[in-house]
Amino acid sequence: MHQRSVVRVGASLIVASLALTACGSRSGDEGGGGGSATKTAKIGIIAPLSGDLSALGLGIQHSVELAIKQANDSNAIPGWKLEAVPKDDEGKTEPGKNAATALAGDPDVIGVVGTLNTSVAQQVQPVLAPKNIAQVSPANTGPGLTQGADWQANPKRPYANYFRTCTTDAVQGPFAARYLFETAKITKVATIHDKKAYGQGLVGTFTEEFKKLGGEVVAAQTVNPDDSNYQAVISAIKPSAPQAVYYGGEYPQAGPLSQQMKAAGLNVPLMGGDGIKDPKFITLAGKTATGDLSTSVGAPTDSTEAGKKFLADYKAAAYKEDSAAYGGYSYDAANAIINALKTSLKDAKDVESARQATIDSLGKVSFDGVTGKVAFDQYGDSTSKVLTVYKAEGADWATVETKAFETK
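^ Branched-chain amino acid ABC transporter substrate-binding protein, sequence as received from the core. Prediction below:
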């Protein structure tokens, strides 16, 4: 930090003093307002930018980058330039923790969009929280992240800095159970999960609701996240004659599982959550994927005018990768932070002093986003409980039905 002193000396010293003062700020050329000095606030992105889940992670990254570019172009926060800082968590806990540590050590980081995986979020939350860095996930669905380990009996918010724009597995699992039992008239299912926080939690809430409705879980199996041969688990559930298999996990494993099920003569639909709702599932599962089912949070992005505009803007930006399943939620997450920054950075002298005010403002945001109304409840959860069922048809997922979940 430099202070300028008023000294009545020659013009050269005055010029030097002014130059020295200027080195303490940054000049922005993206919406900075006529070339005047601007300060920089960074929004981190923690997502799998490489590895099996990179199709989802890169869609998250680019959607956040689009929101930030549009904010800078419109000079959304006068005197400030926003900068995206993507970090690759590989969809794994340790790289995720390292990414959070790097962002937490940067005094210019004001918020973070991420993560994709619930298990990674469990490592990221305790790193960002002590620094009062706002975190908004577009994809975490584990209920415990916002309501604690005992979320069903005694919900208690563990981290005040954590929010999410998607709904949770407390809603998604039961939503899938109701569709299978009430709409598809399936009364017997087998369940499989990959032992990770997301898959285990999803199967847990699905199972509870399915049994409550009167359905029967005829087999319950687990696989390892890095398994590729599922013959043993298929052989274990096939004799129980399920009418469908509900899978808790993500598309890199779900695709081969579906293919191997059908090849082994278990010709029933595989259904999963938002973790399998990607065209790559169908590529991995092959032609026999037709009829498989998934749920995902929210309405289809292309079903609303705001969603269509987002997709058009994303296409015009010419990113190499698709916005994928969480693009709209990531764009809304970034814009939730940006909306909060309009208040918290207005009179802030630096980023660190504005962090708590950003968290406070985030809790009050309310705007019409790409995925619907963006607002948060007392736990930091999205107030929107809209979900969609999809069916695999051809090379992509077709919409079956979109509904708001209501507690019975």
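The longest helix spans residues 54-73.
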